[in-house]
Amino acid sequence: MDTQDLNKLLEQADDKLSIFADSEILNRYEFNLVELLTLIDSFLSNEEKLKLFDYTHFQQLSSSTKTVILSLISDENILLKVLHNNIITNNFENYEIVHIIENMSDTSKKQLLNDQTFIEKCQLPTYELEHIVSSLNDSTKLEVLMDLNLTTNILHLANYQITNLIKELSSDEDKSKFFEIYPFKNYDKVDILKAFSNNNKLDILLKEKGFYKYDKLDLLQTFDIKTLLKFFVEHKEFCYENNIHPYEIIYYLNTEMQKEFITYLDSCNLTLSEKREILAILKEETKQNIDTSNFSEEYKTALSMKTNNSTTRIILDLERNLKDYEGLDNLLSINAEEFTENERAKFLKLCDICPDLEVISTLNHSVRYISTASEYKEAEEWISSIVKKLKPEYSKAQKMAIIDNAIGKKISYSPDFDTEVFNKSDCRTLWKIISSGYGVCNGIAKVEHYIFNRVGIESELVSSENHAFLKIKNIELPLANGEVVTGNTILDPTWNLTSHRFNGKPNNFCISYAQARKSDIDINGVDHNCHKNDDELQDATLSLDELSLRNLFTSVGLADKDGNFPIKSLIEQSKLLDTFYANQIEHNINAQFLLLKQTCPEFATCQNSSMTILSGILLDNENLKFNKCVVNRVYNRNDEEKKPVLFTYIDSDELGKKFYFASKEEGQFIELPQEEFINQFECYEEDLKITNGIRPWETSEQIKGNTDLSRDSGKIVAQEEEER
């Protein structure tokens, strides 16, 4: 029996549903699934189609077949009941449920989307829910998206899904409504704005104050060429104000758009340098398909620049005419660490030609830090002056002594550390550290490592959990007994800063790993693990004993013929002043301040080292015993940058409370009355956290902050016997 026979049977039957309900009757006929579905659609009402699923043989059908049968039901009220019926939909795939919903009216879709019980029961993934919302017409979609609770708490749509849906709206006015409703990030807003018309997009771009440079660049890259050309004519000042260079926009255009833009290059409102920058960074495919027959030599030179495909930077070739790079400063970002002497000399000339180029240094071969051309030149000039002091007959150990001492004289441990103005980049940027005179441990170690490489001393920058220093490799160290030992040792340039600044004995110069670990333990017995790195440092076993160290520094003129370091004179002068002014405490204090200035005229700007000298030597004499003496840094309340200011607070039975601050302009300590000092200066929040919010002058108790040896430029032991 075939389908025609079954069709006749159904035409004659009063109860057509019973024919389909009887699986044995159906089994007598030969027909395919499509024919069966056609018969169901032709002979059964919506209610009867639903009743089919009361019968086992229909319940056992595949979910895809069930879906097709349900799609034959035109009454959406029935379909809504079906979707809530677990017996019918228990084996449905997510996409099959979505397929049913997609073919329903917007009213039914909206009803289901608002039905939290249904949403939770179906457990549809958010991308399927997004698909359903996307199938709505504009007005209904707008209603759904305007309901923040629905989209975020019931449908759990992510911001990027919501932005995708907003972009589908045809009205820019409707799209813009959501900027105030949703907590969008800039990139979400930019993504939506990309779908605006050019005029509306440009209007918002020009008015929006919350966008960053790269948000604005992202939008500008979506304009067509004619709009961009008009933009450069009418809104050039916008680019200047936002540090946007035209080449940064053109770089991201596709090849065809780049070629189109170049045809208008001479007529657009751009400077010669801006035009050359654009030509230099064009995609290689674009460059190969440009007619250069009417190009000037300046254009051709720019076009010949090789580029890095992943950045808006050109590849430097020091062998070509350096004048070719003139005006292309913005495209030059050069890592200058590995230059040969010849390359360095050429690069220094290039810095004069392109004063706004970027000079790159790295830490751990990954994180990039940027110095300016002027900082690079200043730093390299200083490095050259140090290298010139290294006599050809000097051993590597002697060269190390001179370089380590020079760094201590030039660089201070960053006074901004643990303050609101601390710049994590500047204090780790190789040439900027030298130029500014400030750095932190890994930046300072990087400086010394770089100079060592220049003079052929093999070193490695090593880090513990909270500190960085150098491991010197394969170094020959002369001992006082005439022996020469070879191997690996440790040099901690940061912990030597104070010693070198005040001409003392560097206690962290060529020490073994065992010695370094001993110095990690503070006076309270706490191990700060500043040098702990067993894997890297187990083989750092060499050390200079004290006599050998003194002999080494004597050999290069940094200690006298008897091995005494100049700090011995400072200590002796300080004690003489203390004895002379034994009964005149205020004169004694001022004399010690003056001695500090004479020894280190820049004391006000190398706060960390000066704090150590003041608290450990100058104000720690026998006749300067106070109830309380605090040496630290504060900031001027009127200084928006909150730059550190060295201060001394003394509480004395004889003098009462005394307040002094180190004036960077006058280069000396100035005393202020208590009220004036407190009104003018404030402690840093980080310092107040350590002392539970108590300022030094607010309590008579000695407040001991948490010692952190890793944030230190080194201690100097004041005992005279240490300096013989």
Overall description:
The protein is α+β, with helices and mostly antiparallel strands and 724 residues long. Helices cover 48% and strands 10% of the residues. The chain is built from 41 helices and 13 strands. The chain has a 5-stranded antiparallel sheet with strand order 12-11-10-9-13, with helices on both faces. A 3-stranded mixed sheet has the order 1-2-3. A 3-stranded antiparallel sheet has the order 6-7-8, covered by helices on one side. Strand 11 (656-663) and strand 12 form a beta hairpin. Helix 7 runs parallel beside helix 10 (94-102) and helix 37 (567-580) runs antiparallel to helix 38.
Low-confidence stretches: 718-724
What is the chains' assembly state? single chain
Largest sheet: 5 strands, antiparallel
Helix content: 40-55%
What Rg do the Cα atoms give?
39 Å
End-to-end distance: 120 Å
Beta-strand percentage range: 5-15%
Total number of beta strands: 13
Number of DSSP helical runs: 41
Physical arrangement of strands within the biggest beta sheet: 12-11-10-9-13
Mean pLDDT equals 90
Structural class: alpha+beta
The global form is: elongated
Task: Describe the structure using short key phrases.
724 residues; five-stranded antiparallel beta sheet; three-stranded mixed beta sheet; disordered C terminus
Secondary structure layout plus pairing:
Layout: H1 3-12, H2 16-21, H3 23-27, H4 33-43, H5 46-51, H6 56-59, H7 63-71, H8 76-83, H9 86-89, H10 94-102, H11 106-113, H12 116-122, H13 126-134, H14 138-146, H15 148-154, H16 159-167, H17 172-176, H18 186-193, H19 198-207, H20 213-220, H21 225-234, H22 236-241, H23 246-250, H24 255-263, H25 272-281, H26 284-288, H27 297-303, E1 333-335, H28 341-353, E2 358-363, E3 367-372, H29 373-388, H30 396-410, E4 412-413, H31 430-436, E5 438-439, H32 441-454, E6 459-463, E7 468-478, E8 484-491, H33 497-501, H34 513-519, H35 534-537, H36 546-555, H37 567-580, H38 585-599, H39 607-618, E9 628-636, E10 644-652, E11 656-663, E12 668-672, H40 674-680, E13 681-682, H41 685-690
Parallel strand pairs: 1-2, 4-5
Antiparallel strand pairs: 2-3, 6-7, 7-8, 9-10, 9-13, 10-11, 11-12
Helix pairs in contact: 1-4, 7-10, 10-13, 16-18, 18-20, 25-27, 29-31, 30-32, 31-32, 37-38
